[in-house]
Amino acid sequence: MKMRKCFCSSMIAGLVMMAVVLTGCGEAVSQQSTAPKIALAIHGGAGTILRNSMTPETEAAYRAKLEEALRTGYAVLQDGGTSLDAVVATINVMEDSPLFNAGKGAVFTSEGTAELDASIMDGRTRNAGALAGVQHIRNPINLALRVMENSKHVMMVGAGAEAFAQEQGFEMVPNDYFYTDRRREQLIRAQQEEAGEMGAVLTPALSPGADKFGTVGAVALDRDGNLAAGTSTGGMTNKRFGRVGDAPIIGAGTYADNATCAISATGHGEYFIRGVVAHDIAAMMAYGNRTLKEAADTVIMKKLGELGGTGGVIALDREGNIAMPFNTEGMYRGSINTDGNLVVEIYK
Amino acid sequence: MKMRKCFCSSMIAGLVMMAVVLTGCGEAVSQQSTAPKIALAIHGGAGTILRNSMTPETEAAYRAKLEEALRTGYAVLQDGGTSLDAVVATINVMEDSPLFNAGKGAVFTSEGTAELDASIMDGRTRNAGALAGVQHIRNPINLALRVMENSKHVMMVGAGAEAFAQEQGFEMVPNDYFYTDRRREQLIRAQQEEAGEMGAVLTPALSPGADKFGTVGAVALDRDGNLAAGTSTGGMTNKRFGRVGDAPIIGAGTYADNATCAISATGHGEYFIRGVVAHDIAAMMAYGNRTLKEAADTVIMKKLGELGGTGGVIALDREGNIAMPFNTEGMYRGSINTDGNLVVEIYK
C-alpha cells in the first residue's frame, strides 16, 4: 500500500516534471534551472565522538542509519511532500533506531525511566508544536506535529500531553519499549561519576559519543520553498525527572521561518535555552544581514562557547544553503543538498 | 526583624551616599549624576480591560496593589539588593494577591485545577530558571530562582519540579489554596463559550479584563547595572492540563541580557512562543541597532499582530529606559524610572 502510494506520487511528480520540461512552445528547458530546489540536513547528536573509540562496525552502523534517514526524508521531498512531512519521516527513522538518543534507545533519567521531548516548526506559518516529559509515545515528533495541527496550544507536557495523544488515537507503548542495555550502562556510569567514583570515569566508554546528551533533528526545504525544522530527544543521561532541555523549546532547540532559516540543535540543552540559540541564528540573519553560514558559525563557534556550552546545529536557508557547525569532537550529521549530493559525517 | 534589616540597610546606603557626595576634596558632587541608576517596571496582565467595565473600587484596588508591588521591589533596589531579588519581591506581591492570574487567584485549567508556570533570568550571567505545570508551590517565581541557583538544569516541569522543591524545603500548599470564586466563574463562562452557548458570551464580565490570559512580571535594573526579568502565571483559563504557555519559556515570555534588555511578556502565550518575542526584542537591539523603544514597539505593535497574537511586554535597558507596548485594550502596568518617578496605568 505504501509502495503504491509512492509509485503514484512519483508518477505525478514525473508528469509535473514533463510539463516543466516541455513548457515554452515545446522547447526543452534546463531541468536544473527550473526544478524546484529541495534539500535536507540531519543530526544524530553531538559530543565526545572520537575516531579511536569507534569500531569500524559501529561507525558503519551509524553511517548506514544516517544515510537511511536522509534517503527516507529526501524521497518525501522528491515525491512533492512538504518539508514538515520530510522532517517527520526522517526523524522517525532515527527515533526507531537504538543508535540515537530519541525514541527507542533514549537515555535514562536519574529514576531509570525514559522521558521524551520533541518539537516541530513550520517555516511558512511559524506555527509550532512541542511536548516534553512524555513516557509512552513511540515517535514523539509525530505527537509534536499533532499538537501543532490539532490543538490550540503550542506546547504540552507530561500526562496532559499523553491524554491529548490518546484522544488523537496514538498508541501508548510501555516505558520499557525505550530501554536498551547500552543506555542503562551509561546511566550507571554517570551516577558513579557523580558519586565521585573516579574509577568509573576511566572505564572506557562502552559505546562512542553522545553519552550524556545527544538528540536527533532534521531541517528540510520543499519544492514550494517552505522550510521546516524538527528535533526529538531523550534528554540527558541521569537528568532529574521533570527536567526539560532545549529540544522542545521553540527558539532554543528548534526554529523555522521562511524569511531566514530552519534550525535544529543538539548539545548541552541548558546553554541552548539560555542562548536562545536557534532563534539567535535566525535573528542575526534577519537584523544583522549575515549569511546562514556566518550566523550559524558565530552563534555556535563563538557565542555558545563564551556562555560555556557545547553542541552544534544543522541550519538550512530558503536557497538550500546548509551549515552544520559544532564545537564538540564530533556530531553525527548528514545532508542532501540542492544538487542531490548526499554527505554523511561524524568527526570534525 | 524585617524593619531592623531595612533600617540597617538604609543606614549603610546613607553612608555610601555621603561618601559619594563628599568625594573629590570635599566638593559636593551632584547626587543625580553619581548615584547608580535603578529602575523597575511591572505588568499584571494584558487583555480586554475597558474603563467602562471597571468599577471605581476595582480600579482603585488594582492601582493600589500595582503600586505596592512597585514600592516593594524598589525598596530592595534602594537597599542595594540585586535586580533578581527585586524581581522576586515584586512578583511575590502580585502572586499573593487574588487580583492577578499568578499564585493565589490563578485561572483554572479545563480540569478545574490550577497549574502554574514561572521563569526568571539574570542579565549578568544569562543564567535562568523556569518551571511549568506545578500545582502546590505558593510562589512559583521563588522556585524558578531556586532552579536557577541550586540545580544544574534551567527548566523543570510537573511532579519532577515539585520533588525538587520539596528537597529545597519549599512548603507544599494544597491546590485549592489558589482557587477564587471569580476564576471559577471565568472557567464556567469560557467553557460555555466554547460549547457555543452564545448567551454566555453576552453575560457581562464579572470582573474586568485579562479573563482568558494574563500574567504578572517584573524587570529591574540594580545599582551594579545588572538587569533581571521574571514572569509568573496561571496560564489561560480553560487551558488543557499540561499546556505550557510562554511565561516559563526563556526567549518567549522572559529574557534578560545586560548587553541589551530585560523583558517580561503577557498575552496569548502561543503567539509569544512562535514569535520568540522576548529574545526578538533583544536581538533587534543587538543586531539591528534599534533602541529599546523601537525594538519593543516593532515586535509588539507590528510583528506580533502580523502573526495574529495579542498582548504586551515590559522592557528595560541598562540605561534605565523603559518601554511598555501592548496591542490589547489595556495592560495593568507600572514603573519607577531612574528619577524615582512612579507611574501606574491600566488603559491605552
Can you walk through the features of this model?
- In chain A, about 40% of the residues lie in helices and about 20% in strands.
- Chain A folds into 2 domains: about 1-35; about 40-345, (Glycosyl)asparaginase (Glutamine Phosphoribosylpyrophosphate, subunit 1, domain 1, 4-Layer Sandwich), CATH 3.60.20.30.
- Chain A has an 8-stranded mixed β-sheet.
- In chain A, helix 3 (about 55-80) packs antiparallel against helix 4 and helix 4 packs antiparallel against helix 5.
- Chain A is built from 11 helices and 13 strands.
- Chain A is an alpha+beta fold and about 350 residues long.
- The longest helix of chain A is centred in the N-terminal third of the chain and has 23 residues, at about 55-80.
- Residues about 1-30 and about 200-210 of chain A have low confidence and may be disordered.
- The radius of gyration of chain A is 20 Å and the shape is globular.
- The interface between A and B is large, with 45 and 45 residues.
What's the short version?
By secondary structure, the first copy, chain A, is of the alpha+beta class. Helix content of chain A is 39%, strand content 21%. Chain A has helices at residues 2-21, 31-34, 56-78, 83-95, 140-150, 158-167, 181-194, 198-202, 269-275, 277-288, 292-307; strands at residues 39-47, 116-122, 128-134, 155-157, 216-221, 227-233, 243-244, 254-256, 261-267, 311-317, 322-323, 330-336, 342-347.
